[in-house]
Amino acid sequence: MRKKTKKQNKIVRYLKVAKRNLKKLTRKKVKLWFKKNLRQHPFILGFLFISWVDAALIKRSFTVKYIWRVIFFHVALFLIWVVLVSVSNLLKDNHKVKWYLRKRFVFLSLIVFPPLGAIFLWSGSKFKRATKITLTIIFGVLFIWTQLHYYNRYEKLAKKAPFERIIDMIAKPKKKVHLKIAGREALSGLSLMAAAPQDVKDRLPVSDIVSRCSPGVVSIKTKDKYGKEIGMGSGFLISSDGLIVTNFHVMESAHRAEVNVGDKIYREVYFVKGLPEFDIAVIKINSSDLPYLNLGNSDSLVDGQFIVVLGSPWGFEHSVSNGIVSAMRSKGSVKIIQMTAPVSPGSSGGPVLNEFGEVVGITTLASFFMAQNLNFAVPVNYLSKILKESP
Questions:
Q1: Which of 41, 88, 279, 321 is catalytic?
Q2: pTM above threshold 0.85
């Protein structure tokens, strides 16, 4: 209790001293304080000047239309300068080196956040003057380069058309799959039947599509080499002996995987083949007489066509959503299905079915950052391509 009382008394004493000093403030003293600190902290001024130039260049604050933004920005810069200078002065200690002014901590601060490190560096650390100048220049340049680098990347991303961003997200480099590789015979018995013409097929209600196709949809959990779960997704069977199609990003980095088919869990999962640039992967479980889905022709899809999506969003197995094909997007040889059927994490790799219960697409992503009802799937014909190329 005595220690606590001493600390409280100390705080009260500091507050009284601060109050007394504030009463003694005059215009002359304030002017001297600013004059002294303007000379004493050139690195803080330099940092704020860089911020000012950056804001001017990217035109975030300097617009005639929004004059209040300009005023607010300059007031904020001034207040930041006062705070930084005050903190810098408080950190000075002529008697002993505090923990935050020790060389190791200062150097670490320069690496993590150079502006803060520079304040520590010039506020009582025991570095030599030449070392302070050198470190300030090195880490200052590094900080500026980093900011410009990320700003340029943001600018490139912002200038891209929305469809180009989607293509980049789907085709981005994928990490390696570490599952055991299935032998060549895994695809030897697979026969891809050509989809029957639409005029000889019966359109099915959603309930019939779900009852027929849902048994062939699987949920997938992936694990790292330590057995820790790292991801989840959906997939669908394309053969009775256990060939499964899913997204490549569902399987990347996986050392092990578990596949749920109905009530049965398969822990021996093999990697067969992948097409990372289209986010497609084929895996296999060893079984027989499994229910599987028929592949349709994604080239026959038209805008406004009815579709059904099956999957396991957020781990909720056998979930159903429906919608329409918003548009068939293409850039060069790349085609993407844009649809209104909702997609959530865990749905990735699930089948997109047409009104005949045939797989016409593979769910890949939802664009949460742009707008609602922007969901995308990879055309199933890309899958047919890599399966036909197999020996």
A1: 279
A2: no
CB atoms within 10 A of CB 64: 6
The answer to whether 348 is a known catalytic residue is yes
Name the active-site residue from 249, 298, 312, 347.
Answer: 249
Q: Taking the chain, what is the end-to-end CA distance rounded to the nearest angstrom?
A: 81
Is 249 among the catalytic positions?
A: yes
For tokens 């060939």, name the residue.
Answer: 243
What is the per-residue pLDDT across 209-263, written as a single tens digit (0 to 9) for each?
A: 999 999 999 999 999 999 999 999 999 999 999 999 999 999 999 999 999 998 8
Structural domains of the chain sorted by starting position, each given as residue range(s) with its CATH number in brackets: 21-162 (no CATH), 186-388 (2.40.10.120)
* CA–CA dist 91, 206 (Å, integer): 69
Q: What single string gives the DSSP state of each residue in 270-337?
A: EEEEEEGGGTEEEEEE--SS---PPB--GGG--TT-EEEEEE-GGG-TTEEEEEEEEEEEEETTEEEE
Check if the beta carbon of residue 310 is closer than 8 Å to that of residue 350: yes
